[in-house]
Amino acid sequence: MEAAVSSDGESAGELVLRAAALVPWTSYALAALALAAALLYRFLELHFLGDLLRGLRGGRVALTFHPESQVYHRVASKCRSLYGRYLATPWLASPHLQTLFLSISGRPPSFTYRRQLYNVRDGGTIALDWLLASDLEAEDVDSCDESISRDDSTPLLVVIPGLTSDSSAAYVKHLVFSMASKGWNVVVSNHRGLGGISITSDCFYNAGWTEDMREVVNFLHQKYPEAPLFTVGTSIGANIVVKYLGEEGESTPVAGAASICSPWDLLVTNRFISRKLVQRLYDRALAIGLKGYAKLHQPVLARLANWEAITSSSSIREFDRHATCVVAKYETVDTFYRKCSSANYIGNVSVPLLCISALDDPLCTREAIPWDECRANKNVVLATTPNGGHLAFFEGLTAGRLWWVRPVSEFLCALHDSSYMHRQKAQEHGLHSSLESSIDKTPYVNFMEDGMVAAVTNDGPDNDGSLHNQIVGEIELNDGMVAIQQNEHTGEIQNESDSGVGEKNNSEGNVTSVQGHEGNHKQQEEPDANNIRDAIVPVRRSINQITRSQGKSVWLLAYIAVVTSWPLLGALGYFLFRKRFSNSMLAKKPKKL
Question: Is the pTM of this model over 0.90?
Answer without folding.
Answer: no
